[in-house]
Amino acid sequence: MLMMTLYQFPISHFCEKVRWALDYKHIDYQKKNLIPGLHTMKTKKLAARSSVPVLVHDEKVIQGSSSILTYLDETFAERRLSPENASLKEDALEWEKYVDKEIGIHVRRCCYHILLEHPDIVIRFFAQDGPWYGKIFLSFMFPKLRTKMRDLMTINAESAQISRERLGAAIDRIHAHLQKHKFLTGDQFSRADLAAAALLAPLCRPEKYGLHWPDHIPAQLQELTDEFREKTKWVLDVYDKFR
Hints:
Helix content is 59%, strand content 7%. The chain has 243 residues and is an alpha+beta fold.
């Protein structure tokens, strides 16, 4: 089997979905950590869009975390993340679609609204295990990169507050479900649980995420974490058992 290559950002929780799936299925792969702002030179050569994650395997290129999880299950049958039962599979995919939209996007917006004002932290995140010139480039270009990211992802005080409210509603829905059920779908761990936990991980900062979390985080980010702490404790439990 040819080695897989995952083009990614270490900080990205959508990339973490893929890292987790690959590790869970015991698939050998190599990570290529790209530099935000420069990454488009690579991703646009590989795929239709500039976004990560992008997985390359045996001349196949798959872009987007959900599509990659589906490809992995279709290609490697062991330790499937998609339930065999058609109804449960549909339910798992619906949960994943929901958390991608209602958690993934809003966690990203809330966190970046804070972190983009702390270049000392976010530059280390962006440059982790990447090319040698990463920190140099990011230190020089960060003001322009910050402006571009805020524009592209509509990150501002108003949108961040709306995202915080949307995030709270999604966390409440999952919390209510898990009061009555062990997993989001059926009676076993699936892509639904993986997606929800991975996308909430930046709020819980589990060690197995793969990012070098700082010893001290900005007060605003700590406040965001504390706001949802009680209803996201299950994330760390899922990481402990399945990551």
